[in-house]
Amino acid sequence: MWHSTSKSTRGRVLVLASINTDRSLYVDTLPAPGETVLARSGNVGLGGKGANQAIAAARLGADVAVIGSVGDDESGRIALAELKREGLSTTLIARSATEQTGTAHILVASDGQNSITVLSGANTALDGAVVDDLFARNAAELSFAVGLAQGESAGSAIDRFALHCQDVGARFVLNLAPVIRVDRETLASADPLIVNEGEAVDLASGILGREVPAQLDVDGAMSLAAELAGTVSRSLVITLGGDGAVAATDRDVWHQPALAPERVEDTTGAGDAFVGAIVAALAESRSMRSAVALGVTVGSHSVAHRGTTASYPTIERLGAIALPTQSQPVAGS
Whole-prediction pTM value? Predict the structure, then answer.
């Protein structure tokens, strides 16, 4: 964990993380129901949205600690070693004696699109009571600028984590992927709440009590973000793949275009790269506009390379990449 003698929390990120082993197979096309296809190649590596996002943030200079759970198995030992190698603190990661380390099975087509199935495994051992216990036993050292959670964690764990973030004065960021049930107070404290297009539609349909178009163009996403920001959450970001992202606060809404990569190699984990970049920027007290611009840059870099965390750039590599230009906001503050 962090040294308790340091008073500054700048740059510190605490991630409530899902941790998996990713087993990826690269195919020409994704199989139809009942179809068998042959893979061209494959690999095994560290994964889980939380672990991915934590690594993305650390590579961009954030000081990252992880709360999580892995199995008492070889996959768990490999996951812990990989996180440590990336410079992340793993002292708050538990070892489950009853559940195996979570596993994600990923198919990646030649156009970069993917299909993912996740067995949560030891991640399910991380609930609200465990989060409370971790904060109680480590209160002296748990000071951080930004707390990050994802929908791959239990709803009770996310709810308790959000409350602890408020208690220590940390900014709470929630990537509700997938969309799961959490307390309305948890959503209301998210700054920002980050979702992709499909997740935004699912979330908004349930909260607004009316139909929301299943497909969002940039204008539709901006309109929806403006409606939800400041009411459902403090701020909101909707990712739009190749169209970049839209973001909204209670006073402002804007579109952040993405850089177009020369080739889309693999979209797996690009959203996690985006989220990790945002929290790294926010932990350094950068503005939301700057954070979202960095996020789309890192996401665009990720899809041009194969693998999940293997595609994430370091802060040194980003120095050679120009940030995309911003479009004008719809409403200024």
Answer: 0.88
